[in-house]
UniProtKB/TrEMBL annotation:
Biological source species: Vibrio quintilis
Taxonomic superkingdom: Bacteria
InterPro entries, sorted: Bacteriophage_GH24, Endolysin_T4_type, Glyco_hydro_24, Lysozyme-like_dom_sf, Lysozyme_dom_sf
Keywords: Antimicrobial, Bacteriolytic enzyme, Glycosidase, Hydrolase
PANTHER family: LYSOZYME, PTHR38107
Taxonomic classification: Bacteria, Pseudomonadati, Pseudomonadota, Gammaproteobacteria, Vibrionales
Transferase is among the record's keywords: no
Gene3D superfamilies, sorted: 1.10.530.40
Name of the protein in question: Lysozyme
Family of this protein: Belongs to the glycosyl hydrolase 24 family.
UniProt-listed Enzyme Commission number(s): 3.2.1.17
A GO biological process held by the record: defense response to bacterium
HAMAP family in the record: ENDOLYSIN_T4 (MF_04110)
Catalytic activity: Hydrolysis of (1->4)-beta-linkages between N-acetylmuramic acid and N-acetyl-D-glucosamine residues in a peptidoglycan and between N-acetyl-D-glucosamine residues in chitodextrins
Length: 193
């Protein structure tokens, strides 16, 4: 029997190894400084948080249209997507930039509360903001603040963790992939680090 491989699929674990310098995906310590070829950055998320995002998003070297219709590649990257395959280093660099943007969003809400999140809470909320985007994380369709955002700004992180389980719909339909992702985010959010 001949096995056919889809060459556009890439390994999330390999990209995490590039980002973390080979740290275990089970580590709950902050990734810290990231150096990928000429790119340099810093991440507060842990490798365990990276695994939640990466495994939920999947990894592709070739561009495709995501369920929202956006041209996407790598691990959920929708920015400056070329029409050709990209290297794992490019995927890792784009991913770090996108995660950093989600981290800034979460850190901003956290700073309003004056209460530092646990590593698990930060990982979970960063995964959530990476998935929804910062504007949707903060605001409902009617412009009011979301429950998760309000609870984070108030420093009520356990209540914000509970809000994660509500965000399993897309286009009015409950999606198995979102149910699984929110379950993993909730579990990480409530872990004691």
């Amino acid at each position: 029997m001949k096995i056919r491989l889809n060459k556009s699929v890439c390994s999330v674990a390999a990209v995490i190894a590039i980002v973390t310098g080979g740290a275990s995906i089970h580590s709950t310590e902050s990734v810290g400084k990231v150096q990928i070829e000429a790119f340099s950055g810093e991440l507060r998320i842990s490798p365990a948080g990276l695994a939640i995002i990466g495994n939920a998003e999947g990894c592709r070297t070739h561009p495709y249209h995501c369920p929202a219709g956006l041209l996407t590649n790598g691990i959920g990257n929708t920015h400056d997507v070329p029409k050709t395959d990209v290297s794992l280093e490019r995927i890792a660099t784009d991913w770090v930039k996108n995660i950093h943007a989600a981290e800034l969003c979460i850190s901003s809400a956290e700073s309003v509360s004056g209460v530092r999140m646990t590593p698990g809470q930060f990982d979970a909320f960063t995964s959530f903001a990476f998935n929804t985007g910062c504007p949707r994380f903060m605001r409902n369709h009617n412009g009011s603040a979301t429950g998760i955002y309000s609870n984070i700004m108030a420093g009520n992180y356990p209540a914000a963790c509970n809000e994660l389980k509500r965000w399993v719909y897309a286009g009015g339909k409950k999606l198995p992939g979102l149910i699984d992702r929110r379950g993993r985010e909730y579990a990480r959010c409530t872990e004691v680090d």
